[in-house]
Amino acid sequence: MPGLNPLLDAPIRWKAAATDPDLRDLLEDLQANILKGHGRHHAAHLFLSFKGMTPDAVAEVVRTLGRYCTSAYAQLRTNKRYPPHLDGGPVRCLFLSAGGYTALGGHATMPAGAAFAAGMAARQSILNDPPRAAWDKVGWRDHAPDAMFLVANADAAAVTRDLEDVEGWLNGTGVRILVIERGLQQTRQFRPNAKPEGVEHFGYVDGRSQPLFLEEDLEPEEASVAAEPRGAGDTGAPWSPRFKPSQFIVADPNGRRSHSAGSYFVFRKLEQDVRGFNKAEDDLGKALFGANATQVQLDRAGAMVVGRFEDGTPLVLHPSEQEQAVPNGFTYAGDPDGAKCPFHAHIRKTNPRGDIQRELNLPDNTGDRKPIMARRGITYGAKRPMSKDGREFDDAGREPVHDSGLLFMAYMADLEAQFEFTQQSWADNPDFVGNLNAAKGRPPTGVDPVIGQTGTASQRQHTYLDGHTQGASPSVQSFAQFVHMKGGEYFFAPSLSFLRGV
Ligand code: HEM
User: Who lines ligand 1 at CB under 6 A?
Assistant: First the structure.
């Protein structure tokens, strides 16, 4: 689309939209939550079916819901009015799956891509997902959604009111609501007087490392990276959060304006067996450090699974949690053998920060950076009870096993090259960085212990070197699967001019 690409070739300074009509056109027509997460702690995700409706009736529904949706520009301006919080009023977004575009008939052109056209359930063998017959009974097992409507707010009651309005209005349109997935962000306050931070249900800070493509977000983050202490041997350029918007935003084939854009979107309901995970973490700690392992050692065992301590401190930098701001400019250049942070750790597999460049002897780090997605997940299920200071969970032995987890969501320009590649070629690949291992005569890396979905026992075995402990000898330990996929779909987040004008 003429005019769109230069805007997406470099991070956007959104405040410049006040005087740049092209940028303003882009931001007013792009949906919220893509350039920057909505940040609201309460959300509802309505999954809709258009089965049996005529294309004209579907278009009418899309037009009406489209009028409720929030633009990127409105989201950013509202955030500005409520500093420093992101919780500035409602955010609403509408997404269509391939089924939704098909239901629109001649009203719309299908966005490109084989994965999008096929839908998530049909990509089961690529993703190692359980078959649809094993997905959640309510909503997911028997039907593929044609659309998802997201409503988010700082206030749970406001989300409920929004939901009631939408449900009331949809009644009689022919739309069927397959399921409503409520999101409720779990938080922890790691330091006295610090802001509570978003954590996933295993208890680890989530969302710390993100690709940024707004200059206003990059400025404080790059200043913090420049001030961060670097690890021993990590002497090259720091990992940069600076990404081109074109890695996450594409032209909307149905847009009505000169700069109409949208984004491919992954939704996955990932159930977390917290009790099982916690026990496995403790068992791992005892296997590595002995039956009388200290709490610091048990915490380190968990960090060897995730790659960060619960408060977000990167394991490659520190042997225990730190009472200070959590850095994100680190790379693994000073840890080429995976001795400090194992190659299999979740964050090392999903963002190798130079390992792939070393593995394939590439001239630059594009091989590592191309799959990075803009993650926008939120936890679901009841909040876990906390200690009085809000720092620790207070439910030992009673942690959730079912009905709690992560609504994983991510925006990207290419489903195959970003989400599917990350899940298949990195997380699920037991031979990840195989050349680096082979050169040292080491066994395969194994699958990602957090989200890896290949099940054989040997693929879930990992080598722990613990370079943080002098004289530690390598140890091979298993880690079972505690994250289970319960439903999901691929969507496109279209431009507002299409949604409102279809
Ligand atoms: C980072 C947990 C699912 C990709 C993280 C972090 C945690 C975490 C604790 C570290 C905090 C941060 O840097 O943001 C989980 C849990 C999951 C899950 C518990 C499932 C229930 C996924 C999935 C993917 C993914 C499905 C992609 C296929 C990433 C990426 C990062 C990350 C790319 C950032 C790594 C970095 O830049 O260093 N995750 N995650 N995660 N996760 Fe996940």
Answer: 200, 202, 204-209, 270, 272, 306, 308, 346-347, 350-351, 405-406, 408, 419, 422-423, 427, 450-451, 483
